[in-house]
Amino acid sequence: MKKFDELVQQLSEPLEPDHSLALINLGPPHGTSACGIEWSLIHAAEAVSAKALRDILFDADDTEVKRIIAMRLANHFENNLE
Question: pTM of this prediction?
Answer without folding.
Answer: 0.82
